[in-house]
Amino acid sequence: AISYKSLSQDTSGILDHVNCTGSESSLWHCRAKHHNNIRCSSVPYVVCSGSVNVKLVDGPGRCAGTLKVQHEDQWKTAISDKWEETFSAVLCKQLECGDSGKKSSKTLDKGISNFLTLSCKKGTQISDISDCITDNKGTQGYDQVEITCEKHTVIFLEESKPCSGTVGIEYRDKTHWLSGSNQTWNQNVANMICQELHCGNASKFSSKPLKNQTSLLVESRNCSSSNKSLLQCDTTESQESDNNQTLAYVDCEGNITVTLTHGCWGKVNISTASKQGYVSKDAWTEAMSVQLCKELACQDKTLPTHNWLEETILTFKSLHALRTASKLSRHTLVDANTMLRQKPAYVVCKGSIKPRFKPSRDKCSGNVEVFYEGSWIPVHKDALQNIDNQNTICEELNCGKAVTRIDYSGPLEVNHLIRRLQCQKNTNSLATCQDVVVEKIEGTLQTSNLTGLKCSEWSTMVLEVEHSCKGEVVVYSFRVNNQETKRSFVSSHGWGEAEGERLCMDLKCGKYKRTEDRIFSAEANSLWSQSFNCSSKPESIWQCEKKQTAISQENKLFLECEDEPEVVLSEKCTGKLTINGSPVCSSQWKTDYSHRVCQQLNCSNAIYFQQSGPPSTDSYHVDCDEHNYLIGQCKRVRGKCNSGFVSISCVGKCAFILFKPPALRLCNLISCT
């Protein structure tokens, strides 16, 4: 008996007050009250060791894997805190897998609730694993029991490709090689091996000479049509002489690849000759993640994952390394049970991250964002204090050297940010920096804690000058010293509807309307040295920029878009500011912007601006630079505003009181200074 207890149960019975000495041949012979209809308030519940069965599952063979114990008619995952090699030997003998075995520790998989605790006392001799079963329900300090028994046997192909090579058999810590004898090596056996290794059928098979490698262990296997695995075939003595032995070699039709669903990040996807799909997260290790990143040329480090993964149907339960295998595609695969739903293995390689400037009418300047797990996330200002970090981003984006940090522009609508970077001098890729730390945004993060960057290859495109969405196209860029700006006209050469459509979108000016050529005078002006071609689907006009070709005509470009931003104050020269009917967020607003509004509305300059009203879910975030003369020319992004909206009072408001009696006029003028 392993355990017994009394179960409360109101029922009828035939024995009560049972008292055995231990010498009786059956329970019936013990001293007891016998009656055909005894009312019982409780009954005995007994578990015998003969009801306990064991098996190894989710491993590369019958004699290796996770220990499952059948206890009280349920298969449960075995966990233990005190395990010795002698216990492994007992288990392997029970399974007829040899006289010894090795245990490997594995933390209990999350989500496993149906487990059984094995607590074998150190130094004790046990005859059966059932001797170790306890009632302990805790898991602290316990590991899953994973065993590889002495007779664990695995087939593999010895070559760089996963589905071609010399047929090998790992057995008892040794490697055996399958004989290429004509008597046992044929197309059927070759097909069986390829199918067993998830490689389809054999495209060709052959025999290779030993080449004086006399230390190799060579064995012959005699297979019949009923065998499903080479391991089920009978081992026979080779009929060939020791001096004429050959090795079995096969090329299978299929191939095995281990990749990530998004290149250098995503779910682990395994593709074989007959199926493809995901592998269980529970069977995946950090060492495998690092190895996969190396194999995919995605750096040799991983980054923490933040995406929430749902359970999905898996194709493979696990994969296991061979002594001779190096690549993951040559590991032994274990198929998942039909409709097994678990979380899949998921990896983010360091090589998956890359920086960008948020697409706009500016090149090499703007909000710095880093691609991470499929999203573009902002960078904390502390991460870009170091000039080496700044230069790394500028150089990776072919933007020269860093010039200065700039204010972050626009709304913040993400859950994570880059909190820390550590790049060395002359590092030209963010993925090769020593330290990249991603942090979840807790609470409300102010955009003042984020930053943008301006590099030496900066340039911006505007329309000059009387309208926001109609005018001559001009590029401002840095001169050689990065201190002064240069003004250049854009050539009309090569410009068509696609290029005009893209620039109108960048300027937030609606659809493209028309372009025209205008005479360019080279005496007092310069022409931008690059041309533009938007034949692909660019995210900004600067992605259309091409190296300049010889231009037969020297005309500058005039562009007109369909829309013109409607800039309005709620009252004459004062009140709530709206652009195209939407309020403007006050969180990044500057006094200089207020002057532009008042001047555009012929209300002179601004007296002041203030934050009014509650936060808005749909407002414009405005960002102007020195080359924007009209507020409609400034960059604007629609999004959530955590502060109130902008209200402005202009000097032009004072014009309404100048017609009052002279005594009042002076006082009012003083108040409007």
From TrEMBL:
Gene3D superfamilies associated with the record: SRCR-like domain
Domain spans labelled SRCR: 15-49, 54-150, 154-253, 355-456, 460-544, 549-651
Family matches, as SUPFAM superfamilies: SRCR-like
Keyword entries, A-Z: Disulfide bond
InterPro entries referenced in this protein's UniProt entry, alphabetically: SRCR, SRCR-like_dom_sf
A family per Pfam: SRCR
Disulphide bridges: C20-C30, C223-C233, C394-C455, C423-C433, C534-C544, C624-C634
Domain of life: Eukaryota
PANTHER family from the UniProt entry: SCAVENGER RECEPTOR CYSTEINE-RICH TYPE 1 PROTEIN M160-LIKE ISOFORM X1 (PTHR48071:SF25), SRCR DOMAIN-CONTAINING PROTEIN (PTHR48071)
Name listed for the protein in its UniProt record: SRCR domain-containing protein
